[in-house]
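Form 7-S
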Amino acid sequence: MTPNNLSRRAVLRGLGTAMALPFLESLLPARAFGAPLSSDAVAKAAAGPKRLAWLYVPNGIDMQNWTPATFGKDYELTPTLQPLAPFRDKMMVISGLVCDKANQNGDGPGDHARAQSAYLTGCQPRKAEGAGIKSGLSADQAAADRIGHLTKFASLELGVEEGRQVGSCDNGYSCAYSHNLSWHNEKTPMVKDCNPQSIFDRLFTNNDPRETAEARARRENDNKSILDFLVGDADRVNKKLAYSDKQKMDEYLTAVREIEQRLQRASEVTVKVPDGAVRPEVTPANDKASVQNNNTNYPTHAKLVLDMMVLAFQADLTRVITMPFADEGSNQQYPWAGADVQHHGTSHHGGDPAKMAFLQKINQFHVEHTAYLLAKLDAIQEGNGTLLDNCLITHGGGISDGNRHNHDVLPLAMFGKGGGGITTGRHMDAKGVPINNLWLSMLDHVGAHDDKLGDSTGILSLA
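Output:
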């Protein structure tokens, strides 16, 4: 490997734009502090950084179509899990996890608010609104505290459905509980960004307000891509790269260009307004209030947000992401999945076969979007594997059967290999341990060890 004067943290710079580079072996330092890097250090660097992501699904699951019948490597994928078949060897279905702090524990109704709040914290949320809210440190923020300094963003909190932050959303529980998956501490939720354009701007601007405003105006007026401002710097970097890394760079810049074009198309879609209805004035407060953000439908919106996740990981802008597909208690409808029914209402199926069939379609629809993300990650080469190999990503929720509002035997699938040390391709029985035991294990795998998180009782072995 030939030494060069480009740092691994190098970025492409242009007017109002700073774009981090994807993982490129050509940029690995040949020497450290004047001394040659050890073979172990080079191998570790070449493997690529490890990332964590949590995808959350609300309102419970049709468990009979989710849970495999047997444990071990010979399990059969259920109907809901079928879209994940291409990733079976990089996947682990984990049954038997418990989120006890989502139970009533003397606090009465409010399972949806408790489920989302306790999922990553393992803490019992206080039944309160406004200044009285109290939850706990979430697993993603525990990771951000330990490895967040390594990237531009310590963590990213993304979403699709923008709900309310204030008021009561579930039997006296603040909307903050059912709206936020990530918590910086017991009093401070990490508000998610549901606007793909906003996320894109955060990822690829250089934090100079005046320069950013000028660049954005020029791009809009001239209908240029963000990449048009980076051509000179990109050419400079390309001259330093090996052939394989030039291909990676081209793939990365192409992906950015394609997303820009999709965002532009999405913003131009016209929404049919029903007769007699008046389109409200767009303000910063309500521009995100609908899942039809950017005048687009849910599938397009969700995929754009997932694309932002891929770019953020690919460019090593962050190594920690949370992304709920919707808020707990959400009544989003899913006509694209053949389920033009209210999600929350349908989850209270009462054993009605028709409602359970609709719920299964909604569950599978979310799984299909996770498969979309995995395919993108697995197509990006990194070190001796793929970007997905260096991730640990979970898809799950804090409620198992939405009709009963129970918080044991939770639905959860984990993807990626965390850089190694994970035995994938199996259905694992967690035997009733707190779900926070799994979070501690994930933290360990990315070098963010913690001894205790919420109601954890130890580390769940994934070997």
